[in-house]
Structures
1.
Amino acid sequence: MSAILTRRVMIVGVLLLMFSLVATATVNAQDGARQLVPGEPVTGTLDAENFAESYIFSASEGDTITLRATTTDDLTLALLLTDPEGQTISAAGEDSAILSNYTLPKDGTYVVTVLRGTGAEGDASGEYTLSLVGDITPPATSSSANQDEGPIVIDGNDTYISLPQGGIEFQLTWFSAVDLNLEVRDPVGGALYFDNLTVPSGGEHGGNVNDLCDDATSDSPTETVTWPQGFVPAGSYEVIIYYQNPCTTGGPQTFELSVSVNGEDARTITGVVNPGQRYLARVELDTNRTWTLFNGGVDTGQLDLSRVANPFEAEIGQTYSDTITNDNPKDAYVFEGTAGQTLDIAMNATSGSLDTLLIVLDPEGRRIADNDDANDSTNSFLTITLPTTGEYTVLATRYGQVIGGTEGNYTLTIVNSASSVVDADDVSTTDEQPVTTTIDATPQGSIEVTLTWQTNADLQLLVRDPTGESIFDDNPNGLSGGILDQDRVGNRGCVNTTTSPISYIYWPANRVPPSGTYEVEVWYQSDCDDPRPVSFDLSIEVDGLLLAPPGATSTVTSTATAVGNRFMITFTYDQVSGTVALGDGGFFNMDSPSGLNYRDQLSTAQLIELNDTVQGRIDPEQPFAIYRFNGQAGDRIGIQVQRLTGTLDTAVYLLDANGVLLVGNDDVEPGVNTNSQITEYTLSLTGTYYIIVSHYGLQYGGTSGDYQLVLASFGGAASQ
């Protein structure tokens, strides 16, 4: 975890060496890159960790140069010269590598890479000297497409790309006299924040704004982090926004984060933070200069304990290595442990910007220990005494987990505590020894939804927030702050069932939930070999108020009698006024629209024709709409309902002239596409047909928005 007031990032020695060699001269505004100047030799060191280093120079077509790399150590060298179009030639030798009297083919920036003759293999190390000789003429400035293509520089595990049209700019703006702080971590391990204003990769922090509350301004205070035009690291840039001090204003704060790369138009995300919170985002910059701004959300501190599909089988006493990336933010290792056994577990980053996080799960999948930062480093270490005998899981991940932005290689070591743990930060000697933990007390929340029952059955609790995101087993952490407590997930998956299960979803007490309508759903997934009817209590509390009739101890008490039963209730919350209203609730079945009481509206249904497209709106006050059309026996039709606005989760049903259901559809692709469609249905009779458009939950549903209905003809009687 990045602690902005205490953490001082120590840049690995190879990067300090690399950027200590930056020449003071600049060519084509390539500030921050290592420039190679004719007649001015440079020196460097190569070893197993840093087996290649790169330099750049600019020259014109027809210039003749000689490059020479030499060493007096037990080291073989190789030289690579890459021209502005990416074409490479090489020269190698035992104690030197020479490229003599080479005529440069075109104008532009050239890249010189010195590397060990063995590449990444072997343990050879030593110093080298690199020199450039020749009569070089800088090329004329050009805005051509070829110049924009630029080279790629590779230094060990790190890659740099040229941004010739502009650098990188992060800009954080807020609108009150409070103290927010901006931190950006680059892909090569540098961190820019108010107390560390420069990094070797060339980035600079513009300074702390509103750090003194007495002088704080509400006139759009802004903090910036920039990299100049030229060479910058490619990869993932993690952004952390801290609500450091509420000063005398306090309350939730809206901010804007805008990012521009290589002179392109800025891209912006908007978020809300409460005092003490951290908000995460990231920028992914590819080697072809394409980039993406990802909106992560508030770091709630809730750990993602979900299992990994194919964990590694680990043995005590071994060290393992792998990579954490944005596409793979978590690895899992399983091992057999014995009750009373004490283990040391260490996770250490070996490249990139990786800020490690360790989590240990017991044989039942419950968290029993975790560690983020150990011994004033961003590596992780813990000592744990195993409570039972069985298969344990170690989750190797990073700060922020899914919404984080640091990446890199790591090593994971699991040893008996009496053994020696070797790690880069010697964290095994720290006095900070995490202790084995038990299940915590129920975390408090501004919204709390609790489900309890008294059988071994598996009931799933799900809350869909006003943004349309659902918090449940498959998505335990929502961007709006909603959390499924991983210590209270009921009898999930019928694993280690109990007759007093609890499921609990909440929004942390210091998080202001979004305004709007919330759906709360209870789904009877499995009886887990306990076929008794399931009586359950569902409680909803908002800002400490139980939404229930006077004297009641829960919001709803009901009974699910069969596997597959679904119960839904809604409530609406207004964060500005603090008001909350409970909606209707009950069981529903998406296979049939019968709960909608639509029959008395058939006579007034809107008339449409084949191949018509119409639009409408569904919300809790108007949960369905009815249309009618005339069809002939043999007509082949299709019906499509697509959400246009809002959170609407559509459903569609086709009825015959008597209002009897013929066919229906909820989701085009369950879990992926919540629009609805009926494809190529053949009408059996000539006459009137009805279409009902509704939403998930039918009369109890809470999603709302505009939709488009398309009634298509695919031939048959109507086409004759």
2.
Amino acid sequence: MKVMMAESFSSVHMLIFYIVTNSLCKIDQVHASVATGSAGVSSNGIKSDKPFFDEIYPRNISTVVDDVAILKCVVKNKGDRTVSWMRKRDLHILTSNNFLYTGDQRFSVIHPQDSDEWNLKIEYAQPKDAGTYECQVNTEPKINFAVNLDVGTAARAKIIGSQEVHIKKGSTISLTCMVNIYGSAISWYHGNTIVNFDSDRGGISLEQEKTETGTTSRLLLTRANFRDSGNYSCVPLGALSASIIVHVLNGEIPQAMQTSDAVYPPRPLYIALLALSTFFYNIS
């Protein structure tokens, strides 16, 4: 009886020992997996030595006309394979690794050194650029990551008046910017610095009016001085910016610089009509 109990007790110990060691092995495997990071593990959790895409990045991208579009593509375990971008509508290969295979210089590849990123950059996007682009890896079979690009009509800021204004020293600079977006927040920049309404200069104020059709922002700088000269930019949120150059002059401003009614040379059409009328007058 004692022998049977001893054997039974020994069996229980062996079973417990097996369960504990098996559990510890599994824990070690989990720790080892965590320690090695995400390399070799696809987004669905399956371990693989083959290339695969990091699918956390969006497949639908929106931009506006003349803005920049960046289509993300991250390839894990690339190895010595080639990553290419193809435009789906005409099956045109645009890039292959870092090489560009199009004459359109607006396209380029963003690939930080030693990274898994192979992003397609499109500058000055146009409506014709809208459509599907595929990031491809030349495995067997080939794998691809499709990104859809939408290019909308851009909201655009506009500064009233000419692109250059001439202001007499000591007078008030008044710049008016309009943007066709309701409720858009507008910032003003002098050069690369945002205009500070609380600066020691003083005399800087802003007037804003918001309507159903858009937003108007008026920047006022009293007692203009030479340091106020330079490039001013109206930068709205969600729209393209506009710029104007301000010249602060000492003394009187020439008449031709004051208004848009300056005298310009006669246009060619006017000259032709004048010559024609003179010809008919002489032969009559």
3.
Amino acid sequence: MSVTNNNTTAEQLGVVKPPQPPPKRPVRRGAKPPPDRPQRALFCLTLKNPLRKMCIDVVEWKPFEYLILLTIFANCVALAVYTPYPNSDSNSTNAYLENIEYIFLVIFTVECVMKILAYGFVAHPGAYLRNGWNLLDFTIVVIGMISTTLSSLLKDGFDVKALRAFRVLRPLRLVSGVPSLQVVLNSILRAMVPLLHIALLVLFVIIIYAIIGLELFSGKLHRTCFHNVTMRMMDDPKPCGVPEEGAFNCSGVDINYICSGYWEGPNKGITNFDNFGLAMLTVFQCITLEGWTDVLYNIEDALGRTWQWTYFVSMVILGAFFVMNLILGVLSGEFSKEREKAKARGDFHKLREKQQIEEDLRGYLDWITQAEDIEPEGEERANHQDHKNKNSSETESADRLEGDEGENQESWWMKKKKDFDRNNRRIRRSCRKAVKSQGFYWLIIILVFLNTGVLATEHYQQPKWLDSFQEATNIFFVALFTMEMTLKMYSLGFQGYFVSLFNRFDCFVVIGSIGEMILTRTNIMPPLGVSVLRCVRLLRVFKVTKYWRSLSNLVASLLNSIQSIASLLLLLFLFIVIFALLGMQVFGGKFNFNPTIMKPRSNFDSFWQSLLTVFQILTGEDWNAVMYDGIQAYGGVSSLGVLACIYFIILFICGNYILLNVFLAIAV
């Protein structure tokens, strides 16, 4: 008997119903406590001040936050559209963008002032400058105001647009609230202290090898081959030395060439051991494993092939193989700790919810028990009511007998339907047993490998008969895989089939293959689109991952980490955008330092080219050549242009050694 019937019976008997316990308020998950605001901001504005109340309402209004994010995005677009020109030249678009910068500066200044009025400046916890992101915003706003003031007062004002590129960091204030991204951010931030220790160790190794290189190779890379009459340097200069010691011999190239010491050195004098700074830069380049063999061979050409290889081999083993790989160990360890903490927090929240549910259930059980205590008093009346209901139901059943003759005609159809359902279940059971059998498993694997082999036979200028054979086999395999999908859908049912992620992938591949066949034969799409659609055939190779246990486990492991990987990709994209915009401001239009040769492809003259150049440096491929061009763009090693290497070193360390290693930490 239900609780409602018990209460009704108790009311009819005149028994006082026990008081119902008040419902408990549900526990809100993730609810944030109200902010603890100071009584006064800027020593004069109280919480009741109308101006401060208005500022608090505005800065905590969600649309205002979206407006600021939209402004940040628009500011990044304006920085990306800006086209840098050599010699401080400009065009009308750049002038228009310069005027828009004033609008952005006003918006960010208003945001800064309103937050200071709402939260205070710095004197108490929770103040504006106590937040790291607010500190970054405040710094950028102040620098922008100083730049604008100097630009208006001086004709050639101080340009700080390079720092404005850091505004793209502001969206991290919101994306850091995403749990997976928060794990990545916390892991990287918590790893800063041990990474600093590793940085000191790397610096120690670089200093030691720079001092050794300074003692051994100082001034040894400035001798090259010159013509003995015209004193013209050879077209492809390289270091030379005393032939008897095994060094490069100029007379071996041409008898009229002599080895002389009037050359600036390899890479416009950047790669050498002439002073401590350039020696450290050369050692760091060798530790990154990019171009270290070129430095080794230059030293051997200058001094001979004797013992110099021991210096470079030991440097690579100690610096690159040992010390630099410690970064991966630190990041992996910190990420594992943060993941365990996040898991522990999740388990704790689940335990709290379970305890809350058990407490609520205990209260309701007590209430039901109290209601059941008064049930015997009304049981007799309830039985009497059941007896009356039984008599009335018997009368109604007698009336229904008259309509049974009409239903006999429908019984034949019901019998046929039951037979059909019974046979259908039997066939589905047999099909389900077949698709789960070992023979079906090996049949699909063989078909996948045969399909892969046919796809691998395609080549340039293949004969016509091979085209016909590939088209026929494609239709054959599409038909077989369609039959496999249909058989699984029938045996497992639509709901049971689409529960599996691999089955959904198979369905996508089959539908894509059928669509590719239709579009190819009807000539609806252009040849390029057809070529792209034919790539769907290659996805059939991945069907083997469903049946190969080890590959299936590997794919499942990657899918479990996909949320963290997506969060890291967002961080990586923001990092690339920031350094691309920064590179445009610093090096845009400056890589045309030598008009006699073609401008390097890796440059920062446009946003998209800058993105590609930053990504190239991030991967470590020929990053030192881009650094050489950046140093020459500012006058080379003979001036302060050598400081341009700082940009490339920071980009390489933060991108290649930290962010890219986090991918391995997540996968592990």
